[in-house]
Specification:
The complex is a heterodimer of chains A (340) and B (639). In chain A, 29% of the residues lie in helices and 20% in strands. Chain A has 340 residues and is of the alpha/beta class. Chain A has 2 domains: 265 residues, 3-Layer(aba) Sandwich (Rossmann fold), CATH 3.40.50.970; 35 residues, no CATH class. In chain A, the strands form 3 sheets. Chain A has an 8-stranded mixed beta sheet, sandwiched between helices. A 3-stranded antiparallel beta sheet of chain A has the order 10-11-12. In chain A, α1 crosses α6 and α5 packs antiparallel against α9. The N and C termini of chain A lie far apart (49 Å). Chain B has a 7-stranded mixed beta sheet, sandwiched between helices. In chain B, strands 4-5-3-6-7-8 form a 6-stranded mixed beta sheet, with helices on both faces. Chain B has 20 helices and 23 strands. The radius of gyration of chain B is 27 Å and the shape is globular. In chain B, β6, α2 and β7 form a beta-alpha-beta unit. In chain B, 35% of the residues lie in helices and 21% in strands. Chain B folds into 3 domains: 229 residues, Pyruvate-ferredoxin Oxidoreductase, domain 3 (3-Layer(aba) Sandwich), CATH 3.40.920; 185 residues, Thiamin diphosphate (ThDP)-binding fold, Pyr/PP domains (Rossmann fold), CATH 3.40.50; 101 residues, Rossmann fold (3-Layer(aba) Sandwich), CATH 3.40.50.920. By secondary structure, chain B is α/β, with parallel strands linked by helices. Classes of the chains: A alpha/beta (340), B alpha/beta (639). Chains A and B meet through β1, β2, α2, α4 and α10 of A and α1, β10, α9, β12 and α11 of B. β2 of chain A pairs parallel with β18 of chain B, so a sheet runs across the interface.
Chain lengths: 340, 639
């Protein structure tokens, strides 16, 4: 553990490793990398106390490009590896970088368990709705009917929605951002990093080689005001170029309404990211294009006990209760006898 | 061999015997494991050498009274040094007909047979497949049969304590214990202490168990039909303080000791699996030793978390069995690439697939050696007995740290659940494994970590273990092939060859850092018996006995399976024949044949049971007496 109490003053470039970045030109990953370096240089953490852990896939090359400690591990297992790191050294800041296939397909089990345990790590899921590194098969977030190399007649799997999963596991910080919306992305990553407990951020990320334009509706300057809605805690859900539409609850169902004609802001759904029940966040995670604008921002942000703290607390409690471990005493526990 | 003595407090004649083997068997719910462990403790405290063998079904509670639900516990106690829980038993306690029919074959002719008569009614007999009660048809005449109404006598003994019939019947095992304790003149005090500790909070249950125990003991003393008491005098064990210990417990203690002496936190990640779970259970009891136990969502997560904790610079361990190790293989490959120290304990059980979860086998040696993709060598060592697990765990850690390598420690169900006296070591005699982490680089301008070479190697080819949190040593590792020294990702063909060769050479080099292979007996001769793991005791006993009969036979017990000790080839070649004894179809034999081009013979068995001494003795004598030196395969011993 560092004993230096002054915050390091670092530039984004200080977080760049000496390795050449090898994503395809035009890949959305570049923007996320740039924002990550920028965010880390502003939140006062040191390189040596930061660990980036990834699985397999295009996004998972990320740790190689960060001048921190890092492990490019095995497919889907980054949350498990991060668990080992964080339990033995809770003072480290740990990021898990993953993709839709890595996190939701081969690594689905680890993802749900790390979120339910609320281990204090930051997960960033690059969702490009395709398998890029293996050259273009459908992923667990690809829409039904998606034609790919492995689904020439269209994918027939129902897609998973990352945030619905994270909220289903009662994730304590759940957010969404978009690779090209760099201001929003930077702010979201900063809030995620500041959160204590598992933070889960889905980033809409464009794979310009195998699934170009998958998120165009949410990214295009022409449509994004109508197809996305920015969440702010305590504020009504309003969207549209002219901010003239909103989301209202009709019973348990959200509906799009036009403001005016007897409907005011007060009739709209107000976002509450801090409520103890995850139901509202879940409902928001089910708002999908084209029926609804898709929410971006922080869906849920609550304070919950953290696994890494609890497990270390138990060690401290055991020490207080039984005293610091004594090998001689341990070995002689139970019935003993002497041979002289 | 038996002599009459008069040291017992009993009024009845007492016969001194060198050793005795007793088996308790009954329904899974009859408390036979408890009865066995209590007799073990009592015998150990009486100064005997002891060895135990619990044998239970995979089902927690198979239907009552069925053969599938029979659970047994065998204990061998002796006035001499012993290595096995005994082949056939001198006394058999059968709590019901199913237990009798499944265990009777192991009772020596003339042996003592204690039966709970109350269970020998129509339904129980039918379930065990008896048309006629064996108590009535004379089929048990060749044994010293004592048919005792244990259920009835237990109920009588606990009468008036306000227990339900069901609760009263649960005390039957204490009655059986009491009877056996009398039969072998064992002290009751340890069991009375146990009852107080375990049931102290329910005084009526504690009292009932005490009464049942006394009732059994007094029954032995009073009933005329039981005419003789047996006595096994203390063994001459080396001086010291002893306790009884099971393999899994000893292994957990070894891990704790290793972590303390290395001043490391001990991180243990596991997913519950028979017969390895007790290692996890034991460690969770000792969190005050800075032990962090993580019950992961699956085997894969457990192994991967171990890699993470190793990367973070602490002592990381997982324990599993064959099916779990199969799932861990991927992350074990990462561990080999990452070149980080950690321990993977494999407590072997019957396979393949789910196989025989509660039965012992040694069929995962090849899995340990080769069960990963790519050229992926891992050091492999094996424990030989329950108490040896303590030393083996520390040795695994020593190798892991010195060679920056994940180490596989093999045990098996027989060792894991078996127990024996353990001479408690003096802490000051334990060897600490020194761990060195590089500190921040001295020249300030390399603070960004660019000058740190994570795959630079020392004289043992081990790379530095840089801990996250250390300034100036930031680096990235992963499963992709990497350039030597820098650790950067590399697809260079010659570098890949170099790295494959280097990882192999590193593991092979461990041979220079481990003891030479010892031989029990003359270092050359007609026959060398080679064993590893659980069969150690049976082999040692069989070979000692053959040596006494004048046979030219010696024994090698291997601790180190990868790499082999560097003199092992020479040892093998000094004998005319080599017999490899293992509970599989010949896995070590294949390795020996491949490595040393030597025509080793196998004695193999996969029946979910350990070798008996007799099986090995028979084979040794056959080979010794055969004129033809070219005997090839041996058949599995008959059931």
């Amino acid at each position: 553990m560092s004993t230096d109490t002054t915050l390091p003053v670092l530039k984004p470039s200080d977080f760049a490793s000496d390795q050449d970045v090898r994503w395809c030109p035009g890949c959305g990953d570049y923007s996320i990398l740039a924002q990550m370096k920028k965010v880390l240089s502003t939140i006062g953490i040191s390189r040596e106390e930061t660990v980036f852990i990834s699985g397999i896939g295009c996004s998972s090359r990320f740790p190689y490009y960060m001048n921190t400690y890092g492990v490019h591990s095995i497919h889907g297992r980054a949350p498990a590896l991060a668990t080992g790191v964080k339990i033995v050294h809770p003072e480290l800041t740990v990021f898990v970088i993953t993709g839709d296939g890595d996190a939701l397909s081969i690594g689905g089990n680890h993802l749900i368990h790390v979120i339910r345990r609320n281990l204090d790590i930051n997960i960033v899921l690059f969702n490009n709705r395709i398998y890029g590194l293996t050259k273009g098969q459908y992923s667990p977030t690809s829409p039904c009917g998606k034609i790919t190399k492995s689904s020439p007649m269209g994918a027939i799997d129902n897609p998973l929605h990352p945030l619905s999963i994270a909220i289903g596991c009662e994730g304590s910080f759940v957010a969404r951002s978009i690779d090209t919306n760099i201001k929003h992305l930077g702010e979201t990553l900063a809030r995620a990093a500041a959160h204590r407990g598992t933070s889960f951020v889905e980033v809409y990320q464009n794979c310009n080689v195998f699934n170009d334009g998958a998120w165009d509706y949410a990214k295009s300057r022409d449509t994004k005001a109508d197809t996305t809605i920015e969440l702010e805690h305590g504020k009504p859900l309003i969207f549209g170029k002219d901010r003239d539409r909103g989301i209202r609850l009709n019973g348990m169902e959200p509906e799009v309404v036009e403001l005016g004609k007897g409907i005011t802001e007060d009739d709209l759904l107000f976002h509450d990211a801090k409520g103890p029940e995850p139901s509202l966040a879940y409902l928001l995670s089910r708002m999908r294009y084209p029926d609804f604008p898709e929410p971006i921002g922080v869906f849920r942000e609550v304070d919950q006990p953290r696994y890494d703290e609890l497990i270390n607390q138990q060690v401290e409690e055991a020490k207080q209760e039984k005293g610091e471990g004594d090998l001689a005493k341990l070995f002689r526990s139970g019935e003993t006898w002497s041979v002289t | 061999m038996a002599i009459m003595v008069a040291t017992s407090k009993s009024a009845k004649p007492c016969v001194q015997v060198e050793d005795a083997t007793v088996r308790f068997c009954g329904d899974s719910g009859d408390g036979m494991q408890l009865a066995g462990t209590q007799l073990t403790t009592a015998s150990a405290l009486a100064g005997n050498d002891v060895a135990t063998f619990p044998d239970f079904p995979a089902e927690i509670r198979a239907p009552r009274g069925t053969k599938a639900g029979v659970s047994g516990f065998q204990i061998h106690f002796s006035s001499k040094t012993i290595y096995t829980p005994g082949d056939r038993v001198d006394a058999l306690v059968a709590m019901n007909p199913a237990a009798l029919t499944t265990n009777l074959a192991d009772l020596k002719p003339g042996g003592v047979l204690l039966i709970n008569e109350n269970t020998f009614e129509k339904k129980g007999l039918e379930q065990a497949g008896y048309d006629v009660s064996p108590l009535d048809d004379g089929s048990l005449d060749s044994y010293k049969l004592h048919s005792v109404e244990m259920t009835k006598l237990t109920r009588l003994a606990v009468e008036g304590l306000g227990l339900s019939v069901k609760e009263a019947d649960r005390c039957r095992n204490f009655f059986a214990m009491g009877l056996v304790f009398w039969l072998y003149d064992r002290p009751l005090e340890p069991t009375l202490r146990y009852i107080e500790e375990k049931f102290g909070r329910r005084p009526e249950v504690a009292e009932a168990n005490r009464k049942a125990l006394d009732a059994g003991f007094n029954y032995g003393e009073t009933v005329e039909a039981i005419s003789t008491q047996y006595q096994v005098v203390p063994a001459e064990l080396p001086q010291g303080t002893y306790r009884n210990i099971m393999g899994n417990t000893a292994l957990a203690y070894g891990l704790i000791a290793a972590s303390r002496l290395s001043q490391k936190r001990l991180f243990m990640a596991a997913y519950p699996i028979t017969p390895a779970s007790d290692i996890l259970h034991e460690l969770t009891k000792h969190k005050n030793f800075d032990v962090l136990t993580f019950q992961a969502e699956d085997e894969i997560a457990a192994m991967t978390a171990v890699v993470g904790a190793a990367f973070a610079g602490e002592m990381a361990v997982t324990a599993s069995s064959g099916p779990g190790i199969a799932l861990k293989a991927e992350a074990m490959g990462l561990a080999v690439m990452a070149e980080l120290p950690m321990i993977v304990v494999s407590v072997q059980r019957g396979g393949p697939s789910t196989g025989l979860p509660t039965k012992t086998e040694q069929s995962d040696l090849m899995q340990a050696m080769y069960g990963r993709n790519g050229e992926c060598p891992m050091p492999v060592i094996a424990a030989s007995s329950p108490s040896d697990c303590f030393d083996a765990a520390q040795e695994a850690w020593r190798i892991a740290v010195r060679y920056m390598a994940p180490v596989i420690l093999l045990t098996d169900g027989y060792i894991a659940n078996g127990s024996e006296p353990w001479r408690i070591p003096d802490i000051s005699t334990l060897r600490a494994t020194e761990v060195k982490h590089p500190g921040p680089p001295e020249n300030g301008d390399s603070e960004n970590g660019d000058s740190f070479m994570p795959y630079a190697r020392d004289e043992r080819l081990a790379r530095p273990w840089a801990k996250p949190g250390t300034k100036g040593l930031t680096h990235r590792i992963g499963g992709l092939e990497k350039q030597d020294v820098t650790g950067n990702v590399s697809y260079d063909p010659l570098n890949h060859q170099h790295m494959i060769d280097t990882r192999a050479a590193k593991v092979a080099g461990i041979a220079d850092d481990i003891p030479l292979q010892e031989v029990d007996g003359p270092d050359s001769g007609d026959l060398l018996v080679v064993s590893w793991g659980g069969p150690y005791g049976a082999c040692a006993t069989a070979v000692h006995s053959a040596q006494l009969s004048g046979h030219s036979v010696s024994h090698c017990q291997l601790r180190y399976l990868n790499p082999f000790p560097r003199n092992f080839g020479d040892v093998l070649k000094r004998f005319k024949k080599v017999l490899v004894v293992e509970l599989n179809s010949g896995q070590l034999r294949q390795l020996i044949r491949a490595e040393f081009l030597l025509d080793a013979i196998g004695l193999n068995k996969v029946q979910g049971k350990p070798f008996s001494v007799a099986e090995i003795e028979t084979r040794v004598k056959e080979l010794e007496e055969s004129k033809n030196p070219k005997i090839q395969e041996s058949k599995s011993p008959k059931v």
